[in-house]
Design brief:
CATH topology of the largest domain: Dihydrodipicolinate Reductase, domain 2
Strand content: 15-25%
Subcellular location: Cytoplasm
Largest sheet: 7 strands, parallel
InterPro entries: AGPR (IPR050085), AGPR_dimerisation_dom (IPR058924), AGPR_type-1 (IPR000706), NAD(P)-bd_dom_sf (IPR036291), Semialdehyde_DH_NAD-bd (IPR000534)
Number of domains: 2
Radius of gyration: 19 Å
Family: Belongs to the NAGSA dehydrogenase family. Type 1 subfamily.
CATH architecture of the largest domain: 2-Layer Sandwich
Shape: globular
Enzyme class: oxidoreductase
EC number: 1.2.1.38
């Protein structure tokens, strides 16, 4: 019998990915999966990829603390602003990993500015690859998993800033995400006929992951342009920053290589090979490559990951493994599915 886990928000894309990962995890046993509008349906009806698994007939029940309370660890895969109220009603004995934004930001003013409403307090931040975070997560009962863009950008940028290679006040990010990053709710601008065959910017200069990235990396200012890409899942981000001095490609690569030496889920690609989202699909892997712009001299890092994997559910399971004293890689793939 494995560790008992529950998923709140199991009908969404991140929730479905959590169920898929739990189904294949050697140490986790599902005790409850909750939903809102889809309560009463079977997991395999909502997520066809689960239909032929042991979870295919698993019933989704209404989201209620009583339905979740028997678990040793609870995943909250709820919309931003909904996790905190539920988390406050969960048993203190249960460990919790929140995939939403409610507990990521330390600064209450930043929460109010970017999300609005009262600040629910910060939990341990769930990005194990940051210095000192792995041990903090392992010792925590409450962990706030990263945002998908935040994970993609932070893994690219944090080592450069920590090494003093680039200026913290001049960071520019252009990143494209698949449509699943916007959630499963029906929205006109996410219809296939609106998205397929085109690339469009959104929340230009005002994306809510900016304060999270600044908090995680130490950047002083970030110009961030997110793009909606005509694909279901995946993020590709190009992060550029003004160098603190003259920097070569080899120096930039060495900083990344040193930072992620031995990390199971972050990989610096061979020189000249650039990341693409297809190579990360279904995996908990982030792929990186560094360069230096020939004209401007700016240091750049391109980063790719699966927004539902390392950007959401995979990251949450990675944190849960640490919190439960399990092997960090348990139940998580390092090789993507392509093409």
């Amino acid at each position: 019998m494995g560790t008992r886990v529950a998923v709140a928000g199991a009908s969404g894309y991140a929730g479905g990915e959590l169920l898929r990962l739990i189904a294949g995890h050697p140490e986790l046993q599902l005790t409850a999966a909750t939903a809102h509008q889809q309560a009463g349906a079977a997991a395999g009806q909502v997520h066809p990829q689960l239909a032929a698994t042991a979870l295919g007939e698993w019933p989704l029940v209404a989201t209620d603390p009583a339905a979740l309370g028997e678990a040793d660890l609870i995943f909250l895969a709820l919309p931003h602003g909904e996790s905190a109220a539920l988390a406050a009603r969960l048993p203190a004995s249960a460990k919790v990993v929140d995939l939403g934004a409610d507990h990521r930001l330390v600064d209450p003013a930043a929460w109010t500015e970017w999300y609005g409403g009262p600040h629910a307090g910060a939990w341990t931040y769930g990005l194990p690859e940051l210095p000192g975070h792995r041990s903090a997560i392992a010792g925590a009962d409450r962990v706030a998993a990263t945002g998908c863009y935040a994970a993609t950008v932070t893994l690219a940028l944090a080592p450069l800033l920590a090494a003093g290679l680039v200026e913290p006040a001049d960071v520019v990010v252009v990143a494209a995400s698949g449509t699943s990053g916007a959630g499963r709710a029906a929205k006109p601008h996410l219809l296939a006929s609106e998205v397929m065959g085109g690339l469009s910017p959104y929340k230009v200069g005002a994306h809510q992951h900016v304060p999270e990235i600044k908090q995680a990396t130490g950047a002083a200012s970030i110009s961030f342009t997110p793009l909606l890409a005509p694909m279901p899942r995946g993020i590709l981000a190009t992060v550029t920053a003004r160098p603190a001095r003259s920097v070569t490609v080899d120096e930039a690569r060495e900083v990344l290589d040193t930072a992620y030496q031995g990390e199971p889920f972050v990989r610096l690609l061979p020189a000249g090979q650039w990341p693409h989202t297809g190579a990360t699909l279904g995996a908990n892997t982030c792929l990186l490559q560094a360069g230096v712009d020939r004209d401007s001299g700016r240091v750049l890092v391109t980063s790719a990951l699966d927004n539902l994997g390392k950007g959401a559910a995979g990251q949450a399971v990675q944190c849960a493994n640490l919190m439960l004293g399990l092997p960090e890689t348990a139940g998580l793939a390092t090789i993507g599915v392509a093409p």
